[in-house]
Amino acid sequence: MTERDTDIEFDFFDEPETEEATERARTPRRQPPRGPRRPVRPPSGLIPMLRLAGLIAFVILAVVLLVVLARGCASDSKHSRYENYINATQKLATASTAIGKQLNQVLAATGIKESQLEQKLKGLAAQQQQLVAQAQDVNPPGPLRVEHDHLVEVLSLRASGLSRLADAFRQTATAKNASAAGQLIASQARLLTASDVNWDYYFRQPTQQELARQNVTDVGPVPDSQIFPNPDLASSQAMMTVWQRVHGAATGGNPSGKHGSALGPVKALPDGKTLQSGVAASGNEITASTDLAFQVSVEDSGDFQEFNVGVTLTIQKSPKPIVLRKKIPVINAGETKTVTFTNIDINGLFGLPTTVKVDIQPVPGETTTTNNSAEFKVIFSLG
């Protein structure tokens, strides 16, 4: 065979491709299914750092809340301590002032004997000493300890003053010189007036200043207290008058010397019109208003200081008259003082004539009382 013959292809021995084989050739091979995609992991060490940061933030928030809560509780506790203290001192101040009112009544009482006066003064001194013990049991806030010590000292001074006042009356029980007796008694009474000054200067004012420094508000005012509100009562002249009145009662007699009081001008306010007695009501026309008041002048027409001089204003009204009373605690010889009557209900009196009467209670030893009262015919108008 030649080389050409060898190049001849014998295709008739090859079998034709089947349909199945053709299909296999056309169908591509499928890739096996993949599993779920794995999550992307953060860099190593980031999660612990985030957890630590969150923990730190939580701790900081907790600390802040605790601090705020602690401050709120501390503020409430501080306010409560100061409020309780002011309330406690208010009770002491009120009780001590009440003792002072009783003292004034005792010194101004008529018909009281030496032994009775001494016993009453000793009783008041004992009451005041009880207040000292109560004050010592009070526990003040730290910044007010010095002020509270002064409060205790003031109450102690008052107790001592009352006790020494009783002793002074005992020592002068048989004295013959009224002036010397008055001087001795007055020297003890001045301890009480000094206690009033000390209360204000060493306790009330410094306490107010300390409350302001501590920024403490809404605890009520720092209490004031006076046991001898009128210093004139502690004068030698005043105490001599008291001594004479007491010894006059002890012997069954009246105070010696000239004693008396006299009624001065009576004015209707706010007009300022002076009422005239002995004239028709039209001559004393008074403008009615919510500020209506009557001002009464009283003169000590005697030679001695007088105490608790009573003044009464009466306005005739149906079915029941209006009766108002005032007292002048102390008035010196030759001095004129005024008392003012307010809160006068004149409903039903408009345009109708009526009568206003003023009476001054006679003082012990007064013999002339014709100048102690006066009546005025008046008429109230709406202006």
Describe the structure.
The protein is α+β, with helices and mostly antiparallel strands and 383 residues long. A hairpin with a 3-residue loop joins strand 1 and strand 2. The longest helix is centred in the N-terminal third of the chain and has 63 residues, at 46-108. Residues 1-15 have low confidence and may be disordered. The protein folds into two domains: 66-250; 261-381, Immunoglobulins (Immunoglobulin-like), CATH 2.60.40. The protein contains seven helices and nine strands, in the order H-H-H-H-H-H-H-E-E-E-E-E-E-E-E-E. It starts with a helix and ends with a strand. The strands form two sheets. A five-stranded mixed beta sheet has the order 3-9-8-5-6. Strands 2-1-4-7 form a four-stranded antiparallel beta sheet, with no helix packed on it.
What quaternary form is this? Answer: single chain
Could you name the ranges where pLDDT drops below 50 across 5 or more consecutive residues?
1-15
Order of helices and strands: HHHHHHHEEEEEEEEE
Mean pLDDT: 85
Major beta sheet, specifics? 5 strands, mixed
Structural class: alpha+beta
| Percent range of helical residues | 40-55%
Percent range for β-strand residues: 15-25%
Distance between the termini: 166 Å
How many β strands by DSSP?
9
Task: State Rg.
Answer: 49 Å
Instruction: Output the strand order for the largest sheet.
Output: 3-9-8-5-6
Which features characterize this protein?
single chain, 383 residues, alpha+beta, Immunoglobulin-like, 5-stranded mixed β-sheet, 9 strands
